[in-house]
Each structure stands twice: as structure tokens, then as C-alpha cells.
Amino acid sequence: MDQNILFGILIPFVGTTLGSAMVFFMRKEMNINLQKALLGFASGVMIAASIWSLLMPAIEMSEESGNVAWLPAAVGFLCGMGFLLLLDTLTPHMHLTGEKEGVESNFKKSTMLVLAVTLHNIPEGMAVGVTFAGIAAGNTMISLAGAFALSIGIAIQNFPEGAIISMPLRGEGISKGRSFLYGTLSGIVEPIAAVITILLTSLVVPILPYLLAFAAGAMVYVVVEELIPEAQADPHTNISTIGVAIGFTLMMILDVALG
């Protein structure tokens, strides 16, 4: 595998690891306003990445190939939303608010929190993988700089996500070392999903616009279903809205400037 591609798919995992390491430097419980700001920031980054890094290239590829421009984007987006809805329904997990979802299980609260964040990270790994798969296939609609912009943007939003998972685990009485480990492991699905996608490049190329939109739909599902509701939970505050604005703007600048 090309060194640039390998480095690119590992960047988001580094973001999760560094965020999880905050458990060694912060108090036992994260300030609620900080948590809301970080959730909002992650939401803004994911929304912007879905638009500029995934949906727009999908539409441009369809136009270039002479197909109906909006069809792959629409179909892929809805399939991505449906896929995450299915995973969300079947996988036992717990929101930061304490609400349980998925099938009934006897898992510990800490395990269900890790499963929730792991579920979030699947579409992010797919998004990075499909963009670098396009690079590997020589697709001119995706630049190496643009792929790295997506990886960096996801790594930036993974930093607070890593802290958001490791800090509550510490609050549950788990040691700092184990909280860090669990937070880090929740992000390991990203490079795994990316590598699998790249290894299937020969199969991916003909349906690349659909897969880009699929990843976008999956990411938007996570934002709408998980991140924003948790960011807006009581006590209500505008800090999460500000976080969305900052995250969206930063990711947009990264993608336009580097893409």
C-alpha cells in the first residue's frame, strides 16, 4: 500500500488516541458545557465533510461520466442512512445521556458507551477509505490533498470524540489507563474500514459516486441521530450551536483550501 495512503488512513485514529489521552490530564468528569461544545464541533465537521468531501465529488463524477448527476448521490445517501439505521437498531449501545438503544443486552454501561462511539466511527472510516480508494484508482475528481483534508478534518473531530468517551468511562470508576485504552480502541474500526475499502478498489471504482454518497449519508445519520440530540439535551445551551458553526467552517476551509 502506498505510504501516503497508509499515513492518510491512520490520521483519524491518531486523533481519537490523542483525545482519549485527555483522561490523564482532566478531572474525573468533563464539564457539561465543554462536552456540548465538543459534540457540536464534531457535528459541524461531519456535516461539512459530508457535503464538500463526499457528496459534491459524487455529483461531479456522475456529471463527468454522463450519468444523471443527482442519482448516485441520492441513492447512495439514502442507503448510507438506512445502513446506519439498521446498525443502530441491532447494536446494543448507550448514549451519553444514559438512554439505551439497540437490542436488549446485559452489557456493562462502559461497554455500551464504547459500542456507541464505535458505531459512530464506522462511517468515518468508510469515508476516508473510499476517498483514498479513488486516489489509488487514479480518479481525477479526488485529489490527494482533498483526501488528506478529509482525514485531517475527521481527526480533528475525533479528538473531542475520544475525550467524550474516555472521560465518562473514568467517571464510571474505570481506571485512567483502561479508560484511555477503551477510548482508543473505539477508533480502531476507522483504519480497518478504510483498509478494507481500499483493498476492494477494483470493485469500488465503478460505483465510487454511490459509495461516496453512502459514506455521507452514514455520517449525517450519526450527526442527526446521536450527536446533535446529545448536544442539545438538558440543560439547554447555545454553546453546542456555536460549536457546530466553528466545526463546519473549519472543515469547509480545510476542504476548499486543500481540495
Overall body shape: globular
Number of E strands = 2
As a percent range, the share of strand residues is under 5%
| Order of SSEs | HHHEEHHHHHHH
Number of domains: 1
Family: Belongs to the ZIP transporter (TC 2.A.5) family.
Membrane topology: Multi-pass membrane protein
Transmembrane segments: 6-25, 37-56, 68-91, 112-135, 141-159, 180-201, 207-224, 236-258
GO molecular function: zinc ion transmembrane transporter activity
Summarize, please.
With 259 residues, this protein is mainly α. Helices cover 76% and strands 2% of the residues. 53% of the residues are buried.
Keywords summarizing the entry:
single chain, 259 residues, mainly alpha, two-stranded antiparallel ribbon
Protein architecture, described:
There is one protein chain. With 259 residues, the protein is mainly alpha-helical. It has one domain. It is 76% helix and 2% strand. Helix 4 packs parallel to helix 7 and helix 5 runs antiparallel to helix 6. The protein is globular, with a radius of gyration of 18 Å. The two termini are 22 Å apart.
